Protein 1
Amino acid sequence: MESVEFIQWCLDHLNNWTVMLLMAIESSFIPFPSEIVVPPAAYRCQDIAGLIELIVVATIGANIGSLINYALSYFVGRPVIYKFANSRLGHMCLLDEEKVKNAEDYFAKHGAISTFIGRLIPAVRQLISIPAGLAKMHLGKFILFTTLGAGIWNAILASAGYYMASIYPEDQMMAKIEEYSHEFKIICLVLIIFVVGFLAYKFFANKKKA
């Protein structure tokens, strides 16, 4: 199926269940861009309540996909994960040893908080669950940070789609999302800086009290 036809299929069949399924796929090791799922679904939301419901559903889907990566990495271990990444099937999923290693290095550098921050960074967001599983990160903490990161990302995409419904016809939406993808990245970067700054402030404030 051509990519344009697949995008149109998504647009024609989006509901809570398909959004959850596609977002689970997007957050697993199977490559699938959330940008063609959440904004089109938000475009069709009738009100703010529907928009909030969409963000929750998309975030649940993202958690499901992330937990798949986490569980596989947790139980099968590093050798099997790297072997899969270097296999033909892994390459079909756009994986390779370098991408997995980069995700591991990012996790090692930033610690558990990288599970949150990584969800907002393109090329890292889908893979950050793998090093979390390999490091046997506490499951509760993993779910918390993944939910926060995925929730923010989905809120940005959903808000963009909801806003575009008021100014662009539906057949122009995907082109506009691609056009403003750079702005999306800047927004995510600002959010990351804000969160890291806040956490650093809390850390030093608590240290000062101690």
Note: The mean pLDDT is 76.
Protein 2
Amino acid sequence: MNKLRGIKLKHRKNTQDSATVDFPLPKKVKIPMSMTMGAPCKPLVKVGDEVKVGQKIGDTDAAFSAPVHSGVSGKVTAITDYRTAMGAVCQAVEIEPDGEQTVSDEVTPPVVTDKEGFIKAVRESGACGLGGAGFPTHIKLNPKTPIDTLIINAAECEPYITADYREMMESPEDIIGGIRLIKSQLGIERAKLAIEANKPEAIKNFTEMAENDDTIDILTLPSTYPQGAEKVIIYNSTGRIVKEGELPSDEGVIVINVSTVSFIYRYMQTGMPLVTRRLTVDGNAVGEPKNVRAVIGSPFRDILEFCKTDIDSVKKLISGGPMMGMSIPDIDMPVVKTSNALLAINRYDERKTSACIRCGRCIRVCPLELMPADIDRAYRIKNIEELKELKVTLCMNCGSCTYVCPANRKLAETNQLAKALIPRK
């Protein structure tokens, strides 16, 4: 089967052999009430309240959301307005840790007897897509259409990031346990653990672990970007095409991040919700690149200092990878559920944009065979009908077109702006 187009990037997996280290409790945590796709939560605590580890501190009646829990024990010192990296405003609960890390009585393994109970338990865990997208996991695991294939996304195709790889190396039993748990609870026949070829040790380990289980396939995928993008990994793993306007479940597939699978398994054993996050800290301003496990709400500044970063030299701070990550406007912003990497860069020059030379490179690398240069032109004249014909809504903003453009045009950015012009159904 032919694979979708992509680009070759330098992997820069500098921390792949760096075992996860625990970040010490900060003096204060700031926990936003919006860390996933969907509706923001409302605080369930007030200033002066004592909270414990694993206690639910935010929730909402909205179906498309996930509750928020505290990763520390201590006192609520403030509830403030908080602006996310995307520009949205929500509330945030600030807590001063007491250092005791007393676990809440709420933390007990859930009792699950059927699919409905399993989905409810996943929601209560606060789980979301830990690959960076933040889609609430309980929604993903409860589609309206029959599912025959579960794909575990272990590609981790962006440069620098090794958080998922360390999950594979440090908690392989939890991953296999989570795969079997989800298959059993949802009645899914087959699972495919999809790993990029640049992770041979993980491929070898999982191949041995699944040797006697003919319902779990270990797939080796080419080390190309954006191999981990949902539509790409579905096609390259199954040959199925997720059409415009469709969800993966419409093609009988669920895709779930490998760290999310592992977390769900641990939650079912312990009842401890999503209160910590492993993230890769790297970049040329970082003195000691590491994989760090921190409580959600820990300030980025503290984590960078923990990794011997020259803070004054940082010109650009990125949450996530260099291709699809988010530029961070404030170094004191907190770790959130979707934080999988923090890149501190001390050399950054804005490249000058020039006119399109119609070389076609952007078209040749687009995994979905879109025409970014034509989309760019249609956007500038606000031709909505042409944008529809060019299938701009299929764009997943991988940035491959921008990366190869010799004119340094911000094509991926334009695609996102163009998508916003298309009326939603």
Note: The longest strand covers residues 74-83.
Protein 3
Amino acid sequence: MTSGEIMEDREKRAYEFLDGLGIKYERYTHEAVMTIAAAEDIEKKIGLKICKNLFLSTRHGSEFYLLTMDGSKKFNTGKVSKQIGVPRMTFADESHMLEYLDIHPGSVSPLGLMNDKENRVKFLLDSDILDREVIAVHPCVNTATLVIGLKDFIEKVLPACGHDYTAVKVD
């Protein structure tokens, strides 16, 4: 971090959370990116595919899900809904995203699960990501990307958040 850099509280909390767990990560700062397509330059810089993160709910808004998937894939609501046995999912609204994960659209990240103390959000992970050694995600803001070991993420970060994951096949 440069001496004049201003950091949002939610980003600071993400680093404090990871540091408190002894998680090693590489941090890359960049201009704000709102979509996975806009992240192509960042992917080239870090040499990794950045994950696409979608905040979803059932049509009636009674159940909420965070899906982390390969950024190059297209999301098919029907296929994923069927795998987890829920009615067709839709994108959840920003108010629930802020309430449960303390993040805004464009900054969705599995690190937001650290803010979901009541386990209102179920975490879904694209099974293809399980083949990776590292995962690249936002630290709850879209002006930085962190590269974290996948093993650390699954074995340390998720349990510290009080969450587990369900692997789904995203085509």
Note: The first strand starts at residue 25 and ends at 29.
Protein 4
Amino acid sequence: MEFITYEAEGQIGIITINRPKALNALNSTVLEELDKALDAVDLQTVRCLILTGAGEKSFVAGADIGEMSTLTKAEGEAFGKKGNDVFRKLETFPIPVIAAVNGFALGGGCEISMSCDIRICSENAVFGQPEVGLGITPGFGGTQRLARIVGTGKAKEMIYGARNIKAEEAYRIGLVNNVYPLEELMPAAKKLAATIARNAPIAVRNCKRAINEGLQVDMDQAVVIEEKLFGNCFETYDQKEGMAAFLEKRKVEAFLNK
């Protein structure tokens, strides 16, 4: 692939958006390659994904303005759908995804980070939805996910004002989980991914589904979703081994994803 690299380090997969000369901006090709990269992840062995950008300046600086500048209404809507389809695939990906945000995460970059389960960032990170300054709205889920993550008032302030925020404020409002010096960002992402990967993968996947699906319905429906996914863990090898290890006061020998 031209703009996406993928590597697996044991149980951790790392997807890098590799278009540094354009600050990793998202064009149609990047979106298509990201879609293919997700399809190529071996879910039998990989238990957590990290998504990051190439270079030290930018995670993803946004969607490609050059490509968008000549779009018709119909083409604009289709481009929005292309981005939304890929980002939704990322959001509902069976295993957890950590965004390691190195530098700019503007427009589509902020939006793709919000499609991940957990966001951590470098001290030089900048987040924002600057689209109204370009005469458009956020088109890859920004109007929906930002409000759900940081609250309606803060989201409207950022989106209506096209106001960027630095790493410290992103942490304060809950947009990111932690902030690290740039050189410590990927080691921290890998450490967090390894912590997740050590746990029972069926249970972790079910937790992701329970949280994501439960947030879309009322509490009465949400607890039913949880009950079913809770029950789904029983009779698995991993459940039997995890509970046996606890009762026998020993460490789990291995979770086998079955």
Note: The chain has eleven helices and ten strands.
